[in-house]
Amino acid sequence: MDIDDAPTTHTSAPPAAAADDSYKPPLTEAIPQDTPRFADLAGQNLVHPQVIQTITEDLKFDHMMPVQAATLWELLPPHRSDCLVQAKTGTGKTVAFLLPALQTMLTKTLGAAAGNKRDSAISLLVISPTRELAMQIAAEANSLLQRLPKYRVRIAIGGTNKDREERQILDGCDVLIATPGRLIDHMSNEDVLYALRSLDTLVLDEADRLLDMGFMPALREIVGKLPDRKASPRQGMLFSATIAPHVKQVAGLVLVPGYKFISTIPEGESNTHERVPQHLIKVPDFASVTAGMVGAVRHEVARVGSGAPFKAIVFAPTAAMAGLYGHVLSQIAGLPPVSTLHSRMTQNRRTKITNDYRDSKSAILCATDVIARGMDFPGVTTVFQVGVPSEKQSYIHRLGRTARADAEGKGIFLIAEDEAFFPKWTLKEITFITQDADLSAQPEVARVMERMDEEEKAQIYKAWMGYYNNHMKGLRWDKEELVRQANTYAREALGTPETPTIQRSTVGKMGLRGTRGLNIVPDRPKPPRGNRGGRGGGGR
């Protein structure tokens, strides 16, 4: 069924009725006082009373968020409709899909006698695009089940020990939150497939993000390995901030014909990129980008003033460049604390950085698109985007980290002159405020580069060339110009004494064999293969 023919609802719901260690989900919108109360669900015997007590007494939620009010009656038993729900992050959507799925599990497992549960069969499977979002969903599921401790929530994500995960899943798992790549790894085990034999609910959260990250083949593989829905009926839910054609395709894969489409975004509501002031800074060349970034950050810190919070995210195209910008900013006096977040870090490290930044009033986080969607950080005042993003939607979602819950925010887009094609054509509907570049930090940046390890510079060089290899059409470069620009960047921006080396296999992967100007070396011997933790399965 095509979404265009699906029954559509805009935030409709039945009328409203006249501190501990619980995880309270981060919300970026105020909780209204005119929506139904969670207690209404208990009064209608729709949700287990202990879960309602958890929500109202432990989590201190009385009224529902609009997305919850619009969807719960449709998703809860006995209806259990298959639904595609359009909802933004930070609006309470996680509870909107967890509560119906958990109630289905409880209805099925507590049918014989209160307190008894069935064997280790998985009732709910949630697929998330990133590790951080998966952990956030798992925390909310555990919080909702805190009065029912016999039920176990497990996660399957990259960056953790795969064997330990597998043991935990097989030891007992009622709810599994997973990223696609790691889930496929586990599904190669027949015992894990057996645990999924009577799956009750399948949820895809941030469906558009899953598809933007190229997970459609993985999703097809996962659904193909799940039990046939005719033999083992299950409910399907898709939650997505945007509804693009590829989202309709995955809806046909996961949902039954006749599924319902519920939009919880009011018609005519403006998006962040339509209401937040956005400044455009151009620097003359790529060698000036880092200094321009430092100048832009310093300018904003000075503008805000020392007494006011300054909470910024600096988005970089790659993990190596996020590390570079974070390192440079951490060496600049007078700035708030600086941290870096990208996929090369261990999961424990990423979690600590994420939590520390979320709790900070003033801080700077240098990151990749791993946090552009799904992760909510309160109080972000400014979003810096350094270099062209991978696509238009990436720009928009990054900007959406600021100006949440009707707060003010600001976007600053800093590019080299050669990248001017992106705001001119890809973002042509956005009216940018032109801002002069401040390159006064060049000497400070040069001193930081002098102290940086040459191997680290080589990694940045390769990452830079690999990223802009994908933008040659917009830049109007050929392969030789790409290499020339990369070598200039290494020499003038990174301060390398000679062109960094690049392994032969890397050259091949970039499609640069035979291109002049590269300093090619043989591949290094690969280390012995051990337990590397399986697939990453989630984001950059």
From TrEMBL:
Does the record's keyword annotation contain ATP-binding? yes
* Residue spans of biased composition, Low complexity class: 1-20
Give the InterPro entries listed for this entry: DEAD/DEAH_box_helicase_dom, Helicase_ATP-bd, Helicase_C-like, P-loop_NTPase, RNA-helicase_DEAD-box_CS
Tell me the segments the record calls region Disordered.
Answer: 1-32, 513-540
This enzyme catalyses: ATP + H2O = ADP + phosphate + H(+)
Q: What is the top-level taxon of the source organism?
A: Eukaryota
- Which keywords fit this entry according to its UniProt record? ATP-binding, Helicase, Hydrolase, Nucleotide-binding, RNA-binding
Q: Where is the Helicase C-terminal domain?
A: 296-453
User: Which spans does this entry mark as compositional bias, Gly residues?
Assistant: 531-540
Documented EC number(s)? 3.6.4.13
Which N-terminal residues, if any, form the signal peptide?
Answer: none
**Keyword Oxidoreductase attributed:** no
Which Gene Ontology molecular-function terms are recorded?
A: ATP binding; hydrolase activity; RNA binding; RNA helicase activity
Question: Which residue numbers delimit the Helicase ATP-binding domain?
Answer: 74-261
| Top class in the EC scheme | hydrolase
The job of this chain, per UniProt, is described as:
RNA helicase.
Q: Could you say which protein family the record assigns here? A: Belongs to the DEAD box helicase family.
- Which PANTHER family does this entry report, sorted A to Z? RNA HELICASE (PTHR24031)
Give the domain note.
The Q motif is unique to and characteristic of the DEAD box family of RNA helicases and controls ATP binding and hydrolysis.
The name this protein carries in UniProt is: ATP-dependent RNA helicase
Q: Write down the species.
A: Akanthomyces muscarius (Entomopathogenic fungus)
